[in-house]
Amino acid sequence: MSRIKACFDRLKKEGRGALLPYLEAFDPDRETSLALLRQMPEAGADLIEVGVPFSDPSADGPTIQLAAQRGLKAGATLKGVLDLIHEFRKENDHTPIILMGYYNPIDRYGVERFCKDARAADVDGLIVVDLPPEESEELAPYARAEGLDMITLTAPTTPDDRLKAILKDASGFVYYVSITGITGTRSATEDQLKAAMTRLKAATDLPVVAGFGISTPEQARIASRISDGAVVASAIIKDMAATYDEHGHATAKSLPTALDKIRSLAKAVRG
Amino acid sequence: MPADTSITSQLNSLRTGPDERGHFGIHGGRFVAETLMPLMLELEKAYNHAKTDPQFQEELDYYLRHYVGRPSPLWHAKRLSETLGGAQIYLKREELNHTGSHKLNNVMGQILLARRMGKTRIVAETGAGQHGVATATVCALFGLECEIYMGATDVERQKPNVFRMHLLGAKVHPVTAGAGTLKDAMNEAMRDWVANVENTYFLVGTVAGPHPYPAMVRDFQSIIGTEAREQIQEQTGRLPDAVIAAIGGGSNAMGIFHPFLDDADVPLYGVEAAGLGLDSGKTAASIARGKPGVLHGNRTYLLQDDHGQITEAHSISAGLDYPGIGPEHSWLNDIGRVNYVSATDQQALEAFQTLTRLEGIIPALESAHAVAHAIVMAPTMKKDQTIIVNLSGRGDKDVPTVAAHLGVKL
Ligand SMILES: Cc1ncc(COP(=O)(O)O)c(C=O)c1O
Fold it and tell me: Known InterPro entries for this protein (chain B) (predicted)?
């Protein structure tokens, strides 16, 4: 059974939703992000989203844009991110890892080779922000062949008939972008989220997680109850980035700050 | 747009693209986040409907004639031609359009579409500021809210246009990400759009972006080539021996090329900005130095590194300072129908001055790249041969930049 499925099955038994913290690979350097990745499960991450830095993250707000820039400055490449996950897997064989990023680095790498290498690194799923179902046949067959889940994104703007069509072949889980907007800006209300989940659950049996605009423990608690999981990205990165020195380098406070944030989110989700 | 209904053009035409999913060969497509995807489908539907509605066409014709000032003349540049001593050069005078460039052709079409779709707020990206000015102009004309995203570097080097946009009532947002040029402005305009989808129309300024933008902007700009093709035959009795246009995203070029695509005997030349030189690392020549990749909603030739990170473009001209190119151009390159060449910053500066002195026409630095290639080509051709150069814009906005390069303090 895939790690993603095993994880959601287990959480269902526990009767709670998942916490999916996000980290930007190589932000602000390789060692710090590897250390953070390694300690995230113990701090309460059920699944982890690893952001692949891209020069032009057009769906992201300022916080993740800056994180991506720091990651690139620290030498992040798609290959480098796969190596990072490979190292993480030496110590952890159960926490699902979802790569999140934009299509061009994958396209440049070569889709077939990328899917092979991602599997070899024990990646579990892929979220490619700018690869909608209309274009995903470029990548999906290769991902499927390597047992990687292509996570389908849905949005408030996705009409019901389209939801049905795009979720027909979805696997792993479904990601609901809970606002019309970019990462780290505004938040959906509880009622909006409830209405969306009713629509989504009518279209799929897969777990549905909510992301974009979830920043406080209280928001994470609510989102993880209404849906099957809460993705938190900008709020963690923002707290951590506030600890960097004037050159944007990590300090002794960086790692504990990010882990504290994840712990408080996890407590709320489990509470 | 009036469809070409002749049988040959339908059977074996290069003018029928893209396919129904927006692909030109391997290029084009719709690489956007799911939030935007339903909007792209809605836009496509609205555009397809408008395109075949005679009332829409009539309305557009009215504004093009009485507001934009079409048709634009085709001017036989005799002094320039004589001085170069070869082919006769004809200038398609898009700089005479209202607001001073070809940009208004497309903006007029899209604003009428946005109004039909009931949108009340317009966002646009701009490089040189010409597209921003054109957009701000129609927003003033129709009383619509207008937000323009412009790279901070471009805000600095195109000050006259920034002030024009302010006067027209637009809000100009300087974008500091990246090098602060057109690519960054495009990212930021997309971010605004995704956050304001209900009431906002994204008025793309060139033949790039997700389908249907490349096809739609081309259609609106094709009036340039349709007119030029008639005008050259009126004036010389035959088709030209070359058509030359500068390429940023490629809208003025696509506009003048498209009606000539099936004239197999008419060579077409797209002039990319070489910047400091094709191999200087400071260039904007996406076809000459790029590789196919995916950015801003489409697959096309992009300046990028081995890891798929987009690299910064460089050109003296803000309107050409973009690391990509419209997908239809990438396809026309792949099939060999259009020749993509380049001109450096220095060549453009010289052409700028040459045209000004010999014809009394101050070209935009963008258009000066096309003139620069005509200056290279004309002397190699016979005196009874003809070249059409698309003079996409006027150079008033570039006077401060040119003065600075010539060491003149204004
Ligand atoms: C006068 C002029 N010509 C050309 C361009 C380049 O754009 P495109 O390649 O879309 O025509 C611009 C863009 O700002 C422009 O202002």
Answer: Trp_synth_b_CS, Trp_synth_beta, Trp_synth_beta/beta-like, TrpB-like_PALP, TrpB-like_PALP_sf
Nearest alpha-carbon partner for A80 in A21, A121, A124: A121
How does A60-86 read in b/e, with b if 16+ C-beta sit within 10 Å? bbebbbbbbbbbbebebbbebbbbbbe
Of all residues in chain B, the percent with pLDDT exceeding 70 is 97
| CB B401 less than 6 A from any atom of ligand 1 | no
CATH architecture of A3-270: Alpha-Beta Barrel (3.20)
3-state secondary structure of B74: strand
Place of tokens 């999981």: A229
Q: Which residue type sits at B377?
A: M
3-state secondary structure of B299: strand
Residues of B in contact with A131 (CB under 8 A): 31
B174 half-sphere exposure, CB direction, 13 A CA radius: 15
Strands B268-275 and B242-247: parallel
The amino acid at B130: Q
| Total residues found in chain B within this entry | 410
Of B30, B20, B87, B65, give the one whose Cα is nearest residue B387.
Answer: B87
CA dist A66 and A104 (Å) reads 19
- Which residues of chain A are at the B interface, by a Cβ-Cβ cutoff of 8 Å? 54-61, 65, 72, 77-79, 102-109, 129-135, 153-159, 162, 166, 177, 180-182, 185-186
Both tokens of A51, joined, read: 């952001």
What are B165-206's pLDDT values in tens digits? 999 999 999 999 888 889 999 999 999 999 999 999 999 999
CA distance A166 to A157: 13
* Spatial CA neighbour of A157 closest among B300, B195, B310: B195
Residue-range domains of chain B with CATH? 24-65+103-217 (3.40.50.1100), 70-100+222-405 (3.40.50.1100)
Q: Which two tokens stand for residue B329?
A: 């151009």
Query: Residues A124, A3: contact at Cβ < 8 Å?
Result: yes
A128: closest chain B residue by CA: B33
Q: How far apart are CA B186 and CA B228, in angstroms?
A: 31
**Domain ranges within chain A, ordered by starting residue:** 3-270
Q: Residue B42, exposed/middle/buried by CB under 10 A (0-12, 13-18, 19+)?
A: middle
| Amino acid sitting at position B141 | L
Task: Give the tens place of pLDDT for each residue, B118-143.
Answer: 999 999 999 989 999 999 999 999 99
CA B154 to mean position of chain CA atoms: 17
Sequence-distant (≥ 6) Cβ neighbours of residue A199 within 8 angstroms: A160, A163
CA atoms of A96 and B255, how far apart (whole Å): 50
CA distance B290 to chain A (A): 12
Give the nearest chain A residue to B32 (CA atoms): A130
Kindly give the distance from the C-alpha atom of residue A174 to the centroid of ligand 1, in angstroms, as a whole number: 41
Quick check: CB of B110 below 6 Å from ligand 1? no
Ligand 1 closest atom vs CA B221? 11
CB B26 within 8 A of CB B299: yes
d(CA B227, CA B388): 12
| Interface confidence: ipTM more than 0.85 | yes
* Percent of chain B at pLDDT exceeding 90: 93
Comparing CB atoms, the residue among B35, B38, B294 nearest residue A103 is B294
pLDDT of residue B208: 98
